[in-house]
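User: Hey, my collaborator sent me this sequence without any context and asked if I could get a structure. I don't really work with proteins. Can you help?
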Amino acid sequence: MPTAIYVDGDACPVREEVYKVSDRLGLQVFVVSNGSRPIRPTGRPLVQLITVEAGADIADDWIAERITKADVCVTSDIPLASRCLTKSARALAPNGKVWTPDNIGNALAGRAVSQHMREIGMTTGGPSPLTKQDRSRFLSALDSAIQAAKRG
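Assistant: No problem. I've predicted the 3D structure and written it out in structure-token form, which is a compact way to encode the shape of the chain:
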């Protein structure tokens, strides 16, 4: 089964990096979004843009239903990363953080705490902007995840 890369595309700041890796390695890429932020076609034959209907978690559901243990998911969405890990796929964040069964539980718990803090009116802030080091770390993590996925 060939390795594919699934990209949670609505707010992914590293799509271009994924496209370059796809070009270099000949891997299929699925960029999944709900269309709220149109993604420009790439003209690359291995990159398929998937637009799902608007709604909470519809893009995540599309990815989670199709991803296999031979694949890699790029996402900032911790619950989606968890769903991918459940299917033995690899998952990593755009900043290069690799999600594993050992760290996803704490990340889910932290997300729940942050969500509760927002619900009671506290300001929690958003993610930091991506740095050159983050992009470099992402590319290294993506290469490692792809090699691990290919090995099975």
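In plain terms: Strands lie at 4-8, 28-33, 47-51, 72-74, 90-92, 98-99. You can pass these tokens on to your collaborator as they are.
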